[in-house]
Design a protein that fits this description.
Layout: H1 2-25, H2 28-55, H3 62-75, H4 91-113, H5 116-127, H6 129-137, H7 146-162, H8 167-179, H9 183-196, H10 201-212, H11 217-232, H12 238-250, H13 254-265, H14 273-289, E1 300-306, E2 317-324, E3 333-338, E4 344-348, E5 365-373, E6 385-388, E7 392-393, E8 398-402, E9 404-405
Parallel strand pairs: 1-8
Antiparallel strand pairs: 1-4, 2-3, 2-5, 5-6, 5-7, 6-9
Organism: Vibrio marisflavi CECT 7928
Subcellular location: Cell envelope
Domain Cytochrome c-type biogenesis protein H TPR: 118-275
């Protein structure tokens, strides 16, 4: 910031110098001397002409004409030379006022249209880079806000502009892309980080997570290879196992999904909220594995997507619920799923009923709601993201965009 202000001072001083040059070059005394010399020459020349005219008999009263010529010469002398007080500003005063005007006008215009506030905000955000980076890398129960993600992205892009070989910087930018569901930014940033440091397990995991967001099956295959490589190297943490399990479930490899979810259960205690979530995931996979079928026309197929800018904590769960058409808050049926991959397609049926004696198949019209629970407590909603459908017919495919947040 000091360099910026120094540069502005240098530019303004240069402008003042340009304005001052014409004023410094002006020489009023020289101008007066030149005028006097011209007047004397004119006077002498006119006297000579009068003498010639008098000799030729063309002038009747030569003395009167000489008196008029002297008076004309006297009238051309400035008042300051005749002892009268001058009324104009001195050259130094004009110079000082001109330079003051340049300085005031330059900084005044910049303050109003020069984006000073934006520059100051940018400097403040850049200074917060370590703090925001730490919060992003720490698995906290409180996800980063949309504004914090924007600030961190700006600070990172500034740093990467000057340090393009910073692998950790690209990793963080990729994580922001993942949090914002921006697949292009996530994949491009993680790929650059991976090329710089392909041996880092953290970068391998981030790259795999970004590739899982892609719509290209080749990217998914590459992600699976990275994740399996991490398992072979002994880096099978909860996030690695969760990505593998969910990918297996999505590809109807239910036995494999159950195996990895059970591994995750062994890494957490029964008191952990994630333990019960894993139990439900395993039960859902076992149900699919047993070949239980939903009856055509009484199931609710739902596709849930996230709006751009929605941030999801890795430990969050997706709650999808079916409600009566009048919007009653008490769901007829509901189910929980890991909030690890979006968009996600699910199907609810009578086995997901919440009210005894009340089934989805009893409904003709319904509303479906989707919510990301970030703290494991269904009764608390503050900070959770959600979305819901319009009133639809039973059996009609439903698309829900999660784009609102409880205040």
């Amino acid at each position: 910031m000091a360099i910026f202000w120094f540069a502005t001072v240098a530019i303004v001083l240069f402008s003042c110098f340009i304005v001052a040059i014409p004023l410094m070059k002006s020489n009023s005394k020289g101008d007066r001397a030149l005028r006097d010399e011209l007047n004397k020459a004119f006077y002498k020349d006119r006297l000579g002409e009068l003498s010639k005219e008098a000799e030729a008999g063309l002038v009747v009263d030569q003395q009167e004409l000489v008196s008029d010529l002297k008076q004309s010469l006297l009238d051309d002398i400035p008042a300051s030379q005749n002892g009268s007080k001058g009324s104009g500003f001195s050259p130094k005063a004009i110079l000082a006022l001109s330079m003051l005007f340049v300085i005031v006008a330059s900084y005044g215009i910049y303050m109003s249209v020069g984006g000073l506030k934006q520059v100051q905000d940018w400097q403040q955000v850049t200074a917060r880079l370590p703090e925001l980076s730490k919060k992003l890398m720490t698995e906290s129960s409180q996800p980063m806000t949309e504004q914090e993600l924007k600030d961190l992205s700006l600070a990172l892009r500034t740093r990467l502009y000057y340090q393009p070989d910073d692998a950790m910087g690209w990793l963080l930018l990729g994580k922001i892309g993942i949090a914002n569901r921006d697949a292009n930014t996530a994949v491009e940033a993680m790929e650059r980080a991976y090329k710089m440091n392909s041996a880092s397990p953290t970068i391998q995991l981030g790259y795999a997570q970004a590739l899982m967001m892609s719509q290209d099956e080749q990217d998914h295959e590459k992600a699976r290879g990275l994740l399996e490589g991490l398992v072979r190297q002994g880096y099978a943490n909860l996030q690695v196992l969760s990505l593998i399990a969910f990918d297996a479930f999505e590809n109807q490899q239910y036995t494999r999904a159950i195996e990895y979810w059970q591994q995750m259960q062994r890494l957490v205690t029964p008191e952990d909220a994630r333990y019960s979530m894993l139990e439900r995931s395993i039960a859902l996979a076992q149900k699919q594995l047993s070949g239980s079928k939903v009856v055509h026309g009484v199931s609710v197929p739902v596709k849930v997507s996230l709006a751009k800018g929605v941030s999801v904590n890795p430990n969050s769960v997706l709650i999808v619920s079916v409600h009566t058409a009048d919007g009653s808050p008490m769901p007829v049926a509901a189910a929980r799923y890991p909030a690890t991959k979006f968009p996600v397609s699910i199907v609810l049926d009578d086995s997901n009923s919440m009210i005894q004696g009340r089934k989805i198949s009893d409904l003709k019209d319904l509303i479906v709601k989707a919510r990301i629970d970030s703290d494991g407590n269904v009764s608390t909603k503050k900070g959770d993201w959600y979305g819901e459908s319009e009133v639809v017919k039973l059996g009609q495919p439903i698309n829900i965009l999660i784009d609102k947040q409880f205040k």
